[in-house]
Amino acid sequence: MAEASISVGQDQFMCPVCLELLKDPVTIPCGHSYCMGCIKGCWDQDDQKGVYSCPQCRQTFTPEPYLAKNTMLAEVVQKLKKARPPCPAAPPAHCDTGDVECDFCIGKKEKAVKSCLTCLASYCQTHLQPHYESPAFQKHTLVKASTRLQDKICPHHNELIKLWCQTDQQFMCYLCMVDEHRDHKTVSVAAERTEREKQLGESQRKTQQRIQDREKEVQELRQAVESLRRSAQAAVEDSERIFTELIRSIERRRREVTELIRDQEKSELNDTEGVLKRLEREIADLRRRDTELEQLSHTEDHIHFLQSFPSLCAHPGSTDVPSITVSPHLSFEDVGKSVSQLKEQLEDFCKEELERLSTQVINISIVHDLASKPRKELSRHSSEFTLDPNTAHKHLRLSEGNRVVTWSDPPQSYPDRPERFNSYLAVLCRESVSARCYWEVEWSGKWRYGEGEVYGVYVAVSYKSLGRKGLGNECRFGYNDQSWTLVRFLSGYSFIHNNTKTKLPIVPSSYRIGVYVDHRAGTLSFYEVSDTMTLLHRVHTTFTQPLYPGYSIWSGSKVKLCHQPK
Q: Residue 85 — pLDDT band, cuts 50, 70, 90?
């Protein structure tokens, strides 16, 4: 009967840590019993905290309780071992990198399968069994194994977090509610989640709508790309066909002109050959007559002389060949000149039409307005510029391959030139802009105080016809219809064109400025460049001449043209 009784109560003598019959059983102050080695292993992990707890009920002890072997339990366990061999352990699930470890495994940790929100511990399959079998654990909440259990403990009171403070927007425990959050509006975390789930639903709805909108845009873009490819291929094929026909037409006209010249040459030569033959016959007759006259003049026979004289001295009369007047202009040079003029006219016409055609081609864009695209897209149109020393004011020094301009005192020994600025501290670039182009410049140095503003730098584009001599507005960036400029002040930016200033509502955060020009489209855009790009101002106009980048600085400052990889 004793053995039967022990067999029935065997689970009461199993260690909650290793789930085997107790080995060297000890009973801690809360009344729970463990193997001596198991509880020591658990408490060794608590040495740094100085607070020791029961793995089952979580009661804490300070200092570490003395552990003494429970001899009565040891005898009972010994009888159990003799009465029935221990059950084989379940095969362990080894813990891999990234897995949650079991908090109760001693030595090598096994993979945890569940975490208990009441115990605030994670368990492998073996150590989880008491939570399923023992009534003491039936009210515990099990969740998927998690490494973030400490996030659920109040750091101030070491209690489970169950409340949410809506006033301070933070988690708290019950002790927090009666302490520092006493007069705050608080709800349970479940109630707050319910409220947040409503917001989550709305956010999710907006996100899904955004996804649908973007997917629609993607579909439209893909259709546009395919349409563009088909259209481009058709245009190329049509262009090839038309240009082939044009080449054939020109070849046909070339043959016609050649035939025209050759026909005229042949006709004139044939007519001239007939005249030449008749002239040559007439010359031969005249030579024969001259010979007979010569002979007659030497005859001594008076009767023969008188008889022959009338026929030989008679005028030969009219001939078949009229009087010949050879044209002084026997050259096809005028024809060559006409063909050359035709070539020039065709080239001019083709150039004009090609420019018009190029504008039509460039205006075909899947995504409109390149100026709104990211820096990477703009950089595809980046160009390298150099400063023109022939335009630089004498107080501006150029360096680093004419890519840096610095204020200079004493002045530079530049020669006087018509294109040099002689009053305003300005310089233009050597290269012009006549298509799409993007570049960046960086300003550094001292500010200039005057006219109620603190000036930094003028970043401009200008026609070559901008004035250079004197202090008039015709020589000043932005104060005429020949130039457009962005001015960087200490406190902001302004855009100036045709003597009209527009203050821009942007607080500066960088000293680098990007400029994008689409000459044919008539677009000019200025950007502030840092980790991101901020559009400062954009102009839509019609450019009638090539544009030249230009800069104006003051004492103690400089501008650098930045390298911008494509």
A: very low
**Are 38 and 123 part of one and the same domain?**
yes
Structure confidence at residue 252 (pLDDT): 93
Say which CATH number the domain at 142 has: 3.30.40.10
Q: What is the mean pLDDT of residues 424-437?
A: 91
Q: In Å, how far from its chain's centre is CA 72?
A: 79
Question: What was the pLDDT predicted at 2?
Answer: 44
First to last CA, the chain: 92
CA-nearest of 435, 417, 420 to 519 is 435
**Higher pLDDT residue, 227 or 566?**
227
For the question of whether the overall pTM of this predicted structure is more than 0.70, the answer is: no
Instruction: Show Cβ contacts of residue 488 under 8 Å, excluding neighbours closer than 6 positions.
Output: 443, 455, 456, 457, 459, 508, 511, 513
Tokens read off for 133: 């079998």
What token pair was written down for 536? 């400062």
The answer to whether position 186 is within a domain reads no
Q: Is 396 helix (H, G, I), strand (E, B) or coil?
A: strand
Instruction: Tell me the three state secondary structure of residue 445.
Output: strand
Left (φ > 0), alpha (ψ -120 to 50) or beta: where does 107 sit? left
151 against 501, higher pLDDT: 501
Of 299, 325, 360, which marks where a domain is finished? 299
